[in-house]
């Protein structure tokens, strides 16, 4: 399709009005109507079709210095998005092409073409470029294989296991020869999904009892790898069950993202001495060199259905904030996506 669409005069975009303290409140945000942005030289105008809402965005709402700049107040928020080009002033980018870019949280975005990646809607559903074949998929791949130095025969434990990253970590571990894969999640339905659909060997609902006890029961011979999406009592439990030479990849700590006080650290760090254990944090942004290998290896598993994925799809730009809050609450199974 290369016909030039009729464009509206305005576009809706989300602004951050004030920096949330604790759980974000609707009053901290506004959906604002703004004149349709005009693409400058080298830019494209994209009509977004899918927006990503991700836990890391909570960090960008605070002013604290981090690896990504805080959202500016009263300016459009940003995030991953996939959309269709509706006007182009960039060579090689035609009206009708689809791109992955960072002008999310809005309907239309004018973005520098060189900061976008063309995606093919025929090769895979567009939303998957935000999830299983996108940033969260690469996070699982890099964190498990590189940071946690996964090897065949490892016993792997992953928290947030029914989420976008976690569900992929568990399945990757299984497909690459883990001897046992254990997951934790926040509801019995999610636990059932892990066992029945994703092929986990054991899974538990972390809300049903102490994580350390449930993990010990699920991994009687201990764990070699812990992929941490949650922090807090999950991390302490994992250290408590860590085997000799065990590795812990710190991907996220969603249990503390809305905390107003520093969270207490694990009380059993001394176990790392006897186990020669290693804990290492990582950021997916440092591992984009793995992208070709990731697509080559994981793409066929996704296409064949050996690696399954779920998406929770919320419709309408006006529901983007609710979708984001839903991720923090655990409303999602798999990647949370907003469809426009
Ligand atoms: N390091 C990196 O480069 C990188 C990149 C992407 C993501 N991450 C991190 O990876 C983690 C997962 O991200 P994602 O995009 O895949 O999100 P997700 O897992 O799809 O969604 C977040 C999930 O966290 C769980 N959760 C919320 N509060 C919790 C709590 N207090 N205790 C335990 N679980 C809780 C909820 O599931 P339940 O129903 O199971 O509670 C929710 O569905 C996050 O920590 C994120 O910050 C890191």
UniProtKB/TrEMBL annotation:
<dbReference type="InterPro" id="IPR011032">
    <property type="entry name" value="GroES-like_sf"/>
</dbReference>
<protein>
    <submittedName>
        <fullName>NADP-dependent oxidoreductase</fullName>
    </submittedName>
</protein>
<feature type="domain" description="Enoyl reductase (ER)">
    <location>
        <begin position="25"/>
        <end position="338"/>
    </location>
</feature>
<dbReference type="InterPro" id="IPR041694">
    <property type="entry name" value="ADH_N_2"/>
</dbReference>
<dbReference type="Pfam" id="PF00107">
    <property type="entry name" value="ADH_zinc_N"/>
</dbReference>
<dbReference type="InterPro" id="IPR036291">
    <property type="entry name" value="NAD(P)-bd_dom_sf"/>
</dbReference>
<dbReference type="InterPro" id="IPR045010">
    <property type="entry name" value="MDR_fam"/>
</dbReference>
<dbReference type="InterPro" id="IPR020843">
    <property type="entry name" value="ER"/>
</dbReference>
<dbReference type="GO" id="GO:0016628">
    <property type="term" value="F:oxidoreductase activity, acting on the CH-CH group of donors, NAD or NADP as acceptor"/>
</dbReference>
<dbReference type="Pfam" id="PF16884">
    <property type="entry name" value="ADH_N_2"/>
</dbReference>
<dbReference type="InterPro" id="IPR013149">
    <property type="entry name" value="ADH-like_C"/>
</dbReference>
<keyword id="KW-0560">Oxidoreductase</keyword>
